[in-house]
Amino acid sequence: MADGQRFADTLEERARELLAEPVHRYVRQGAREGVTAAEATAAWEAFRLLPQVLRDVTSVETATTLLGTPVRSPICVAPTTMQRAAHPDGEVAMARAAAASGSLMVLSSNAGSTFEDVAATGVDWWLQMYVTADRSTCVPLLERAAAAGARAVVLTVDTPVVGTKYDGTGPTVWEVAEPEWLRANFPLEYGDAAGDEKATDLGPQDVDWLATTTGLPVVVKGVLRPDDARRCLDAGAAAVWVSNHGGRQLDHAAATADCLAAVADAVSERAELYVDGGVRSGLHVLTALALGARAAFLGRPPIWALAVDGGAGVERLLGELADELVDALRLAGCASVARVPRSLLTRPGQRPLE
Q: Under CATH, which architecture does the 7-335 domain have?
């Protein structure tokens, strides 16, 4: 690797050489023409910084808490499936890396590793959940996750149906997938009965139902609008997660970087706020904090890192971005992730944000 080259910048191309082509395509692709997926990182890059000066940055604090769980920095692992297609140890290797990094991991309900094996790594983890049409079919999975030590449930609300992907002419990931890559925590008969499909009638009542069923705080993931954020909070959500599903659902959906400030204003002090989508550097994380997020979650980059070097690759990725965040905070005149003002941001030709 060339001197000065970021590890994060090498990952996708190196992973492309190691992964089966349908697997790489599945992780990389967005919905339809891929407009939203392609715009994600550029939206963070469009911001410019107005650094504060004459500030004491001798010591910079990156530690925070997410729903009461301490993390070493506000850079965490988003839920992704097919991790065992990237590396044989899959979610267990990802969990070990997150634990070693002092991070938090959100585990896909379609994981290929059991909740118990993930929990045995000592990682702090949340369960990502798709609620099914027949709510009762969710209960065994939710109860198993709670018993295994999940600290929260992340309700994905932007997937009443799976967004169309243009997969080309080669085999799809579903044609090459091994049985052990998916659904390690579901009953064997899951998927055979009417009502096992994703719910198309999600409503605010499901936030309360999940909290009551599990006894855990509920994070609502997939919010881009301030009015929807307020509805989530009125329903009892402990946190709101600004996400467009990595551009994999509704193509032409707005970039999360462009939605975050308005949602943050709607959430205010009522709940915690998270974001994902195109975050690729410590500078992007700093921008997210200035826009009002408490944490930024990474989706594709940890998968690439897992494919390249297993858990060690994920740990290196998280460490690199955390170091970049410290450097960015110091140069921006911010001594803590808890004190990053929106006035730090501007766009070319515009006044600072307020």
A: Alpha-Beta Barrel (3.20)
Those residues with Cβ within 8 angstroms of residue 2's Cβ, 6 or more apart along the chain or in another chain: none
Neighbouring C-beta atoms of residue 59, cutoff 10 Å: 8
Dist CA 152 CA 98 (whole Å): 16
pLDDT (tens digit per residue) in 223-267: 999 999 999 999 999 999 999 999 999 999 999 999 999 999 999
Distance between CA atoms of 354 and 352, rounded to whole angstroms?
6
Decide if 277 contacts 40 (C-beta within 8 A).
yes
| CA–CA separation, 300 and 35 (whole Å) | 16
What does residue 145 show for φ and ψ, rounded to 5 degrees?
Answer: -65, -45
Q: What does the pLDDT look like over 21-62, one tens digit per residue?
A: 999 999 999 999 999 999 999 999 999 999 999 999 999 999
Our CA dihedral for 317, 338, 125, 127, rounded to 10 degrees, sits at -110
User: Is residue 314 within 8 Å of 98, Cβ to Cβ?
Assistant: yes
Closest by CA to 256, choosing from 274, 238, 271, 269, is 274
Q: Is 245 a catalytic residue?
A: yes
* Residue 33 neighbours by CB distance under 10 Å: 11
Locate the domains of the chain by residue range: 7-335
Vertex 150: Cα angle to 286 and 263 (nearest 5): 35
Question: Which member of 24, 87, 245, 284 is catalytic?
Answer: 245
The arithmetic mean of pLDDT across residues 328-353, rounded, is 93
Cβ atoms within 10 Å of 133's Cβ, excluding its own: 14
Q: Closest by alpha carbon to 101, among 250, 312, 342? A: 312
Instruction: Report DSSP state, residue 138.
Output: G
